[in-house]
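Instructor's aside before we start: the two examples that follow are unrelated to each other. I chose them only because their records fit on one page, so don't look for a connection. First example below.
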Amino acid sequence: MQKQRDAKMPSNRARISKTASEHGKWSLYAKICLTNEWRGTIPKIGVVMEIKITCKGADLLPLDAIEEFQGGLKKRTKRDIDLIIKSIEKYGFSFPFFVWNGSGHNYCLDGHGRIQALAEMRRRGVSLPLFPVDYIEAADEAEAKQKLLRINSQYGKMTVDSVMEFTEGLMVDWDELELIGNIKIKEEENDSVYTKIIKAPIYKITGEKPTLIELCDTSKAEKIIQEVKRAQISDDEKIFLINAATRHYIFNYAKIAEYYAHASKDMQALMEKSALVIIDFKKAIELGYVKLINKLADEYYTEYEREKEDDI
């Protein structure tokens, strides 16, 4: 009875050919189906959610042809995976996998988090395309592991000022990013030694006090607001769009720092509360401007207290 049922069931490739030819979409659809054939499922045309591929690589591979290589080196929470999924949904698949082809296996050197995120997206019903990969050369597994460690190493650090300057004019969702591990911390005399004490900028008077108009460029926002006011839309829609126009404000943090140095104590306190300046890293964490996972926060403060004791 089972053999009779099996004989009537067409193969995956036969179903691919038939379905794709019916819809006249062999090239694209066949690639999607052949990818899904790794797990024995055929997506339905019209309901397939697509992942945008926004990069190019040396080759294209289905997800199941790429094997994880780092084992338990790096742990990720459900939140980490959800953030990666959110990034893929928003910006597409933006960076090729780095792959070492060892003994006929495509071992992943960079992209393990995306492998987990894509597997979760597939579990939720998203159909996966072929993914760009770049091949990394390594003589053996030991050298491949050395290269993986270097991919995960961070040889540079960001400062609060450099992040603020780089993101000036951008609307950044800080909840999507985990930048704290990259924030530059105080250097000792030996450049290779770092402490967990983050050196906040010191705001001193270096010139004349700027005017308030100089601190923020509102010209683009004001232009948009005028257009909104003239538009034939409801009053509620106007209120919403006028509020949204403030995202185009561009703050001049160099002049803000100079103004802060000249300002009264009350004004300075309010500027700190609005994160226009950061003089206390711990306070910035408490106010929610710098986000740490609980475990990392505990480790930070534990190490910080130890170093303070060592300095005594």
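Example two begins here.
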Amino acid sequence: MEPDVPHGEISIAASTSIFISALSLTIIPSCCLSPIHWYAALLDGEVVIDLNENYPKQTFRNRFEIIGVNGRQVLTIPVEGQKGMKIPVKEIKIAEGTWRKTYLHAIRSAYGRSAFFEYYIDVITQIFCGSQQYLHTFNAEILEWSLAAMKIAPTSFNPRFNTDLVFPFEKIQSGEQRDLRLDFEPSAIWPPLPPYPQVFGDRHGFQGNLSILDLLMNKGPGAVDYLLLIKNGGHSL
């Protein structure tokens, strides 16, 4: 099956050599409106976004977290059933339904009063109202938008998609090569993040490691400085 791999500013891997030879290789999963720690990992050396791994359920590959008036909200993009089969992420299809409209309403309710809502909501609406058939395509469109919003030039930073290689977990965890594919699930424990202003911070206190959407809506292009702080091990702004 040939997936609708997105084209544009983000490169797609076509060979093995560039990955295997990279000393600072970091393998991460394709995630939906990824958590902040995912983006910090994305900025760390040679990065491969693995679309050829078998799709695991109940992870951030198809869910993201925001914070609204009632606290944290988990929004999950429905996907078609795998019928007990192991299917690579690149072949996972988005299920039909009203989730696009529902989640846009949740985003508007959560961030309508944020500092950068008016700057980003039109593009977010366009992506959510798109006709993406595959989950990884939706995720890639969000990624391209978020990098552009942070003014990260594709010429200086260019993550790659893996669509055909198999990276055995037991062979990656050596030297400076990192495999973070198992780290992005709701039960994962990440280091605490330095606080930044949030819309409902006065009601719920600071909520860390939410979706990149939360960081962008509240800090705008300044989000990249925050991510670099996290990448470099900083704990205060």
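Residues 1-23 have pLDDT under 50 and may be disordered.
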